[in-house]
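User: Structure tokens for both sequences below?

Assistant:
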Amino acid sequence: MNAEQLKQLEDDLWSAADNLRANSDLKSSEYATPVLGLIFLKFADNKYKRAEPDIAKEFAELKGTRREKPISEIAIRKCGFYLPDHARYHYLLELPEKEDLAKKIKQAMEAIEEYKPELDGILPKDEYVALTRTSNTLLAELLKNLSDIPHDANGDIFGKIYEFFLGKFALSEGQKGGEFFTPPSVVKLMVEIIEPHHGTVYDPACGSAGMFVQSQHFVERHRRKLDELGETHDEDQLYVYGQEKTLDTVKLAKMNLAVNGLRGEIRQANSYTENPFDGFGKFDFVLANPPFNVDDVPLAAVEDDPRFHTYGLPRKKTKAKASEQGKETVPNGNYLWINLFATSLKNNTPDSGRAALVMANSASDARHSEADIRRTLIENNLIYGMLTLPSNMFYTVTLPATLWFFDKNKQDDRILFIDARNIFTQIDRAHREFSEEQIQNIAIISKLHKGKRADFIRLVDSYFRKGIDQLLVNRERVEPVSEQLLGVLDDAQGKQAVGELVSQWQGLKALKQANDDYTEAADLHLTAPGAVEIANRNQQELRAKFDPFFQQLHTGLKQLDKVVRQHEKARAEEARKAGKRTTTDRNARRLKEALEELHKEVRSAESYYQHIHWLQERFPNAEYEDVTGLCKLATPEEVKEQDYSLNPGRYVGVVIEEDGRSEEEFLSELTTWHQSLERLNSEAESVAQLIAKNIDQILEST
């Protein structure tokens, strides 16, 4: 299943599930847990079905011998679950209408927990009764809709569907739902920078365990890259430790671990007052998105805990009055979390001791006792880097947040500052995310800083490989779209513009050959002296060959835009002369749709090459350098000059960016606005005439 098919499946499943909820009296918070439970049940059934032949074979071979074992024991060893017949998805799906489906699902969940103790008390059971409160069919329809998940869907696909539903529920619940969910693209960026590919990972505010899932995905991607290069790697999985104060969220997290096949422990605990894993100096990596600006933590609960006071304890500016002694609270909990991250990391361990956390922007410049803590962290050389996020990346925070990165094994005393506020993809009016390419482009800045120049070359190489594949797909789509245009643009000028655009795509043949020659000669091991420099030069030369091709395409589209506008203007003038109302006819709509499709194909084809441009323009030598408006390596002296501020904006500077729209995109938008204005003016004129007519009639009748 490719990414496009998975996205369509996710959208279809969510639409079906949410439509059912809309026809009930359920809140999203009531609906989320039972739906996620059914997704888990479908995952368990799929996994069991794939292992079933091997389970049955071993059971038959051992039956009647001294080594005979219960089938449940064999099943758990082979696939992690044992599902008796009454816990199978198809059994529930095919139950007659007269059966109490909520009761049957509860029994299925109990059976899974009976044979998998780590899920004991975790799976939803009594929650299914609520789904029958106003409808006898809602639960059956939900089972049927989720059965559309393919039988061969593996744990990775299930993990993505589960994560997609978590995000959708968080979005629909707003502030409350966002408490348990951090957008995957933010988590993925954090993981790509600290690179947790072995050992233990800790999240003291784990929510639904998204940090752990992305860490495991990183490990899998890391191994695939090493396999492609023929290099060995450690096969051990991560072991994760998480704590979360809300029991319902702990249950979501445990299901998430099970869906994704992760090893670890999740405990219900308040991180301010409980330390269930004895975590001081224990973990290889720490990741979290803790609650911001908490102001009600009792000082007495944390002042004697080394997790929170090793680098200084945040205190109020004024001394407590006698009447307040023993009742004091910490003025702001942000630096309690910052302390917790720094103290949870192992010391002096190779290739670990790294952390990433999401924090309110205000913490970067906080004053008084918090400024003292920040200075201590900086002077102890614990801060690896700071990254400002765009606004509207979170469901509960509209202003930009900042990512903090710790490293107890830094190789120098400088701090890496990255300002990513202008790098994002708009997903709807109120929310943004990072695309996969944007994540990799930002993360490569850190890797270049660490001297991993080969990773830069490999990233650019991946864009060339994906780019040429996308171009070949786009070329196949251009001809039928062009035929649509010719069906409407029947004049000579239109035919010429379309013909020239089609002929420009023929230049792709030579570019494909140049790309193949580069790919055949490329050595991505990059171990020989000067190999990075040679590869970087070859990549820049290849990119330069593609530049004229895209320039010609844009010129051709610009000419075609002009022809289409002239065509529309001519049709409008003909209608005006004929005394007809100026409207957008079917042919004009077809014309616009076909033209927009062509623009879309070119944008899609060019996207990977734009990423190559972005990287090569900023890092032309395939090595780290400061880039105004993007990144800066600041020395301790420079940080001291800024009063130990950790706000990236103070260091990277500002560059004025254009809005990124091409001339044809601007003109197309302007044309749309103009047409809307003409339509509204026409409607306003009609309404004004009707009002005047009605007033005349009223006056005449009085």
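Moving on to the next sequence.
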Amino acid sequence: MKVGVNGPIPVIVVDQFGYPTRSAKVAIIRNPQSGYDNDASFKPGREYQVVERSTGKIVKTGAPTQWNNGATDPVSGDQVWWFDFSDVETPGTYAIVDTERNKRSVEFEIDDHVYRRVLKHSVRMFFYQRAGFEKTEKTAGKSWADRASHLGPGQDPFTRSWLAKDDPSQAKDLRGGWYDAGDYNKYTSWAARNIISLLRAYDQHPGAFGDDFGIPESGNGIPDILDETKWGLDWLERMQNADGSLLCVQSLADGSPPSAAKGPSFYGPPTTGATLMGAAVFAYASKVFSARPEPELKAYAADLAKRAKAAWTWASENPNVLYYNNDDGKQPGSKGLAAGQQEMDDAHRLAARFEAAVYLFEITNDAEYTKFVEANFASIVPDWGPSQWDAVGEEALLYYARLPGASDGVKSAIIAKLVARMSQNGDQLPMVIGKKDPYRAPIKDFTWGSNFSKAAQARLYELLASYAPDPNLAALAKAAALGYLNYIHGVNPLGLVYLTNMKVAGAENSAITMYHSWFAYNSRRWSKVSEANPGPAPGYLVGGPNPFYSLDPCCFAAQGTPNFKCYMSGAFSLCRHGFSPPLGQPSAKSYLQFNDPWRANSWAVTEPSTGYQAAYILALAPYVN
């Protein structure tokens, strides 16, 4: 097998974890035509086999089928053949073998529990992202043990206001929560969204989540997903002021490992958007935790309900309180407060208010909330949607449609629109029926965070499968959803599992590096998985191929006309010539296994995010038994 800049260049790609017994199972045979691997040409033989590992038994023989009459797919740059072995349902370990060309795939499992280990490591990502919590050898593994971070002078327990940095009287104890992504900042709205997604996964598929995921709370009789979300909720409670409002963001210093971070922490002011998302997550969490038998969790749920109502009241009385962190153009003096821009536009603020009203209505049965929902439901997803960008809004709409107090007309309208648009919109199910993507995971747009888009699109099909009145349509949607998980698990042009360090779960070729402050480029121990060094912790979903990736202008100066400013900034040492890939590639090959910081800007390709992670867990949960 040839080796390229992203690792081995495979010709047969499969889901490296495996397939549920009764699912669609299609191996992809690839002949690269354009992109960095275009010299790895391959023409498949006429006979393919499914071979059982332990016995060598051939359980299926057949010929591959050419995709689209031999056309080259512009998104991947590949010619492709499909080998369908969906009828192989006996549990076991298998490989796909090209007998004429003497090629074989990596091994994979067929089993109804095939994704359980994958889910465990994916959820554990949130544990590794905990701020202010010790990672012991027992819970994190010897390779990733670290002292509790951001608890020193001027840090999280003593967080000062960004607007009053020199006023200790305004310091707040804002310990806890999760690092949002490869940086260590914490964002209220995004954390709330992640918690809702994680709780939804548990709420709809409780059997997928055990009490044995290896976090400190494991073994306490409560599913670990609830323990983990409670860690995030406890931080959001600290972000809530006495008047019900929620602070919008907390900025933390970087360090590798996290406990090495010594800089101060700062918080941003309360905003309408952050407070609405607080109302939504507190209300929904109240519903989920109130269903538990433990008295302490029922009391916790009651407190969350009070917080949700207080947040709703403040946001209703203060509907346009905005703060653009880290944007001096819109908010003078904000530059430097965290990294991502957390402020919402009007449409997203309406969606947050809508979602909060849905969950508040469920736990209170108060007509104030349902009145707002039914007056605004038609505005949450655009008429041309849903697209990969609308999964969250569609989720909230359909959640309302299942509540007993919702009017029949609104329920019918929500479900009818979903089914019609998903079935007829050319960017939805017709893409699947028309076999638009040879890798069986089509999305409308390949952008920054494409793996998030893949997970979101999978979730849309799962929702369609749950609400479509036609069982044939539901089955088609369910099968389509799994294709996106197969893609993340290795059925892609790189043959790469887009989760880090997943040999522990059976993956032969998973991401070995990513952009992250802990697992930094200059860390010999954590930068990259190797025989000598552990690299990043398992289970992080990286951003994915990004055809809009670009180098910092300093890199072009380093490669061309000398630029004194770039020279003094050290650009020359961080700008490797070319960067192709991810530059100059078909969209699905716009990926490089690198973690170089500014000015190479690897975060646009390999950075993980708790938002990506939560969306992936929500999409994966229906397939975990």
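User: Anything stand out in the second?

Assistant: Confidence is low (pLDDT under 50) at residues 567-571.
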